[in-house]
Amino acid sequence: MEASQQARQIGFIGLGIMGRSMAGHLLAAGHTLHVYNRTRTKADDLVARGAHWCETPGDVAAVSDIVITMVGYPADVEQVYLGAGGLLDRARSGTMFVDMTTSSPSLAVRIAEAARVKGCASLDAPVSGGDIGARDAKLSIMVGGDQAAFDTAEPVLRHMGTSIVLQGGPGTGQHTKMCNQIVIASTIVGVTEGLAYARRAGLHPETVLKSIGGGAASGFQLNVLGPRIIQGDFAPGFFIEHFLKDLGIALGEAAQMGLELPGLSLARRLYEQMAARGLERDGTQALLKLYEA
Amino acid sequence: MEASQQARQIGFIGLGIMGRSMAGHLLAAGHTLHVYNRTRTKADDLVARGAHWCETPGDVAAVSDIVITMVGYPADVEQVYLGAGGLLDRARSGTMFVDMTTSSPSLAVRIAEAARVKGCASLDAPVSGGDIGARDAKLSIMVGGDQAAFDTAEPVLRHMGTSIVLQGGPGTGQHTKMCNQIVIASTIVGVTEGLAYARRAGLHPETVLKSIGGGAASGFQLNVLGPRIIQGDFAPGFFIEHFLKDLGIALGEAAQMGLELPGLSLARRLYEQMAARGLERDGTQALLKLYEA
Questions:
Q1: Do B76 and B96 have their domain in common?
Q2: Are A151 and A189 in the same domain?
Q3: A222 touches chain B (CB under 8 A)
Q4: Which of A184, B167, B170, B182 has a 20 to 30 A CA-CA distance from A22?
């Protein structure tokens, strides 16, 4: 721990693959950790390393200065924060909440308002970088909330990410994550269609990548996921079912803003077809299967 | 000129912005250049530097060992190669033809067959990299044809590009270029939709790029064209009218292969709307206008 930082009482709720890695970094940095997860066994490793188990989210709030949440769906976020006996029910005045779940911008605004009423601060702070970014503490963290809350939370977030950017007021972290997912949605469609065309035309996709991987088509989706598509490696870097959740949030928000996004709508229709075939636990790059069926 | 290369009689047909740059590199390398262009004035600069003007494409073929073409549309390619008094009508046996126009893979196969009948060799060799790539001799050149023809042409192509890859037999250079355009088509839709959402949500798009420009959404379209979109700089790096030509070729070929590409179809519909508004001379990144109308 750096001299400029004090050890804090930090709560962490949501110990999936990413949450466990992120919580582990906070523990390693010397903070006292209070944890809760729906499935208790996922906390075993952290508890063995010194984290304190709590029986409910509310119990976490009661003993923490900062509570970080990394749960599944917006409905889970709403339940944990706003449900009876939830975080805001039990929070002491002055507690800071940081929701790192990818969730609805509108819900983030509601939570921020509810927190303010209780004398608490809140940030929405979704991440990109996936399992590996979480494990290596190299996440990109997109933050919405006020500057003072950001300044307080930033040293803690620093243990989990390398790019930590305040985007604006409540909800803007989630909106920024939606921008990220919207760009990816149509890009993966383009990469998939380009490689499906290459195969159908009888080209050698690896050789095609040699020609097109350095120019105007280049990018993470083509250069990192492209080779996996070519090799038929459809193991999840990012699950289709989680991508579908994000695309649904983005389309809902866009509809509220009166913004039509036909590329995003198309991507969702295609991934819904993947889910209908039972492929929702494949990685997003498995979309190729739809074009080769 | 390197010691291993001999000065050649090279024909060059099609002296648009890119063609002029490319022909200039061949002249600078010490080759003898025979040029033709529909609008003669576009040859003035090259002729002043020593290139020989020819009155017809056929005249170019009659005096050249290698003829390079860089014209507009597939119909132009067909006319120049297969029309009466065109290249193959006038070619001597043993002449090599290299079509660097982005054109139809099927037409490339037809030209290769017609060239073979005449005792000539041909390559399809479209490029990516745009005006700047042509000017700086840093094009990516995607080549279709046989290995012996490729080996003969490669030292000449080397004066114009840095990535020169033989993709396979006749037509595979064009097919590879189509892969490139197919990937770009949906990617630019995604980038545009992500940034349109950012603006509508009241985010600062520059700050959004700070968060999302280094991760899974990153790439040439987001990182190079994104800032131009944000600044409202819609000057053409690549004209919408040329992009529409390429998307039409790709969709036609895909239809022949029985391959549905819904992302590509959507991109074409959106760019056709741009053209219908008289915006076909904007750069591809101007698609944002459709979302803010």
A1: yes
A2: no
A3: yes
A4: A184
Tokens coding B189: 């839709």
**A147 lies in the same domain as A13:** yes
In this complex, the residue of B140, B187, B291 whose CB is nearest that of residue A186 is B187
Domain count, chain A: 2
Of B180, B203, B291, the CB nearest to A212: B180
A-chain residues near B260 (CB < 8 A): 291
CATH number at residue B260: 1.10.1040.10
Q: For residue B264, what pLDDT band results from cuts at 50, 70 and 90? A: very high
Residues B198 and B81 in one domain: no
Q: Show which of A143, A169, A195 is a domain's final residue.
A: A169
CB-CB under 8 Å, A190 with B179: no
A56 and A93 housed in the same domain = yes
Per the confidence metrics, is the pTM higher than 0.90? yes
Same domain, A96 and A204: no
> Taking Cα atoms as reference points, which of A240, A278, A226, A292 lies closest to residue B260?
A292
Q: Which residue, A138, A169, A200, sits at the end of a domain? A: A169
Half-sphere exposure (Cβ direction) of A260: Cα atoms closer than 13 Å: 7
Q: Are residues B165 and B189 in the same domain?
A: no
Range of the domain at A73: 3-169
B106 burial type by CB count under 10 A (0-12 exposed, 13-18 middle, 19+ buried): middle
Q: Are residues B35 and B155 in the same domain?
A: yes
| pLDDT tens-digit series, residues A224-270 | 999 999 999 999 989 999 999 999 999 999 999 999 999 999 999 99
| Catalytic (active site) residue B177 | yes
The distance of Cα B167 from the centroid of its chain, to the nearest Å, equals: 16
